[in-house]
Amino acid sequence: MAIGEAGPGSVRDGSQPRKRLEETMRARLGRECVYVPSCRFGLYAALRHWCPPGGRVLMSPVNDDVIFFVVLAAGLRPVQAPLNPSDASIDVDAVPEDVWGSLSAVLTTNLYGNPDPAPGLRARCDASGIPLFEDAAHAIGSEVGGRPVGAWGDASVFSLSKHVGAKAGGVLAVADPGLREALEKACDDLLLPRRTTAELAYAVRPYAEAAVRGLRLRRAAWATMRLLGLMEREEIRMPLRPDELARAVASAPDLDAHDPWVRVDMHDYRLRAGRFRLGRIGRRLDRLDDVLAACRSGTELLLSTRWGHPADGQPRAAVQPLFRVPLLVADRDAAARAVARHGIVVGYLYDPPLDDYAGAAFTDPSPSPEGARWFARHALPVDPLRARSVIAALEESGVGPAEVPEGLGPTGG
Ligand SMILES: Cc1ncc(COP(=O)(O)O)c(C=O)c1O
């Protein structure tokens, strides 16, 4: 199969598989959908469409730093929200009134697939006349208030790298079908041309990864990635490089200037996709319901353990097919080492919270940061598809559950 360039509008350029992907997501969500090369790219396009530069966006401090840099790239000031310590959802009632009055948008995270309180946030945004954006990267199968996550916002963005497992791709869904064309055009203007080398690397990546696993060459592969400059995180958070970042922020909105931060973990995030890539993503999306069913049963199992229920005594709502299950453990780093000894790498850690990471030069801090700090320190995000192995590893190491300190309960919302 040819992987390289093709003229625009031809069958070979991927317009047919792209349309099929958009149609699949439209059927799931009941909303118009635009295919984008990544969630971060779709979010940037949405922020640029709705929010004039200089605005302020309420967001979760327990989030991928890449999303923080997308907000900065769009010329917006991140405002960190207070969080419910049991699942890191936004604590709507703890957001001070003067903060509500200062906002130009709200962005949810739906961390690991646990929904933010979208109905309450929708009502607050409507009352303030500001848009709600949903980052549904982790939450493609989750529901809240009787609707899928992603069906509450003016715009919502999905990552097909996560549950779908395609390691590329995303979807921008819009509430107003009349905006589809304008957003498609806005995305088109921001995309960079397809590169044959990038398509080829995408095509062979699963085979290379399987070979590395088969030959037990993980350590050597990581060292090579580091040598090639493809490993940009030594720690959980990428290096902030505040002086360079301040220069980039001064030129925002400007995606190019923020590229060194926004591209981390995915250098193809704004490349036009080829037919091969779109075809593989489409085939994986077709299998999504099976993946979600397996995630739901793994989630159920993990939540039934002593680390699954936070010590706040609050009953859980219906089990969501979580992307990761945040087990709440007394010593997160020891727990991560225990599962690493069984060959399982814990990813998607977001510690410290973004306000502690970036400081007041780049973000408004949360008015009550304790819930976010506690969750970030104690949450061990476990892949529900590896539930049994992780439970065995934690049992063997005697990992204890975390206890929510007195006074750190949610205020509701
Ligand atoms: C919460 C969250 N949102 C968005 C993204 C970005 O998704 P993508 O890699 O598709 O841009 C990530 C990446 O891990 C994420 O964790």
Largest sheet: 7 strands, mixed
Number of domains: 3
The number of strands is: 11
Order of helices and strands: HEHEHEHEHEEEEEHHHHHHHEHHHEH
The class by helix and strand makeup works out as alpha/beta
What is the third-level CATH name, the topology of the largest domain? Aspartate Aminotransferase, domain 2
Work out the helicity level.
40-55%
Report the span from N to C terminus. Answer: 52 Å
CATH superfamily of the largest domain: Type I PLP-dependent aspartate aminotransferase-like (Major domain)
Number of helices: 16
CATH architectural group of the largest domain? 3-Layer(aba) Sandwich
What's the overall average pLDDT, rounded? 91
Oligomer: single chain
Strand content: 5-15%
* Molecular shape: globular
Radius of gyration: 21 Å
Bound molecules: pyridoxal-5'-phosphate
Name the strands of the widest sheet in spatial order: 1-9-8-5-4-2-3
The CATH class of the largest domain turns out to be Alpha Beta
Unreliable residue stretches: 1-11
Q: Could you give a short description of this structure?
A:
It is built from 16 helices and eleven strands. The chain is of the alpha/beta class. The strands form three sheets. It has a seven-stranded mixed β-sheet with strand order 1-9-8-5-4-2-3, with helices on both faces. A two-stranded antiparallel ribbon has the order 6-7.
